[in-house]
Write a structure and sequence with these properties.
This protein is an alpha/beta fold and 233 residues long. The chain has 6 helices and 9 strands. The longest helix is centred in the first third of the chain and has 15 residues, at 21-35.
């Protein structure tokens, strides 16, 4: 199977260089492994369309298509592809959805979401990472992604409500301020637990309140801010 860069009206990869044959082969293996996890074909295609090697530092590119997290600077990481697939599938994104991505990092999750949603707003607390992600996504051709530097409130209330919110950092519990930014019927996918060990959960906003489903154990960096963890000194 050849993992091409599919194009559509919302995002493309016109700024990306074609990877060498070895990297292309590794990429195809990664995509095939994700397909076998049982996530939807739309999620598989969205992941296949995002050149992960473009979202990691040069020294990490030989490992870009391994199923591992990789450092991207600023004490942050890019999550392992299989976990990105699980989180993306749990969001159940529709083509008309507005999605909030918390923890932009390198922009990889936002790039994947851009192929599934109408609009993606991605928030990053490290200004240097936000600027690098904005430049990268512009270069690669993702016009429906908006990158913002995080403010004093978790999420991005200015553009709420959202159909789906995904968080790439762990909170001690489901933050009420994020739940309040969901549309009725909206979905929030977030790791919750201690600073070192968490469970990934999917939360749906219903008329009765929170409908929470546990997905799998995981380990993420802590979510910093009100309704989450204080910054360690």
């Amino acid at each position: 199977m050849k993992a091409d860069f599919p194009a559509n009206g919302r995002s493309g990869t016109s700024g990306a260089e074609s990877p060498d044959p070895w990297m292309e082969k590794r990429r195809a293996v990664m995509v095939d492994a994700i397909r076998k996890t049982g996530v939807t074909q739309a999620v598989v295609e969205a992941i296949a369309a995002a050149p992960r090697h473009e979202f990691v530092p040069l020294e990490a590119q030989p490992d870009a298509y391994e199923d591992i997290a990789l450092p991207i600077g600023g004490g942050q990481t890019i999550s392992q592809p299989s976990l990105v697939a699980i989180m993306t599938a749990a969001l159940r994104v529709a083509p008309t959805d507005k999605v909030l991505d918390i923890g932009t990092g390198s922009g990889y999750q936002a790039a994947i979401l851009s192929r599934l949603a109408a609009e993606v707003i991605s928030v990053e607390r490290v200004p240097e990472l936000a600027q690098a992600a904005r430049s990268r996504l512009d270069r690669l051709g993702y016009p429906n992604v908006q990158i913002e530097v995080a403010g004093d409130t978790l999420g991005w209330p200015e553009a709420a409500p959202y159909d789906a919110i995904v968080v790439a950092a762990a909170a001690p519990s489901v933050p009420g301020v994020l739940f309040d930014q969901l549309e009725m019927g909206g979905r929030l996918v977030i790791p919750v637990g201690s600073r070192t060990d968490q469970v990934l959960v999917a939360v749906t906003r219903t008329p009765a309140g929170r409908d929470i489903t546990e997905i799998c154990p995981c380990r993420f960096v802590p979510l910093i801010g009100p309704d989450a963890w204080p910054e360690e000194l």
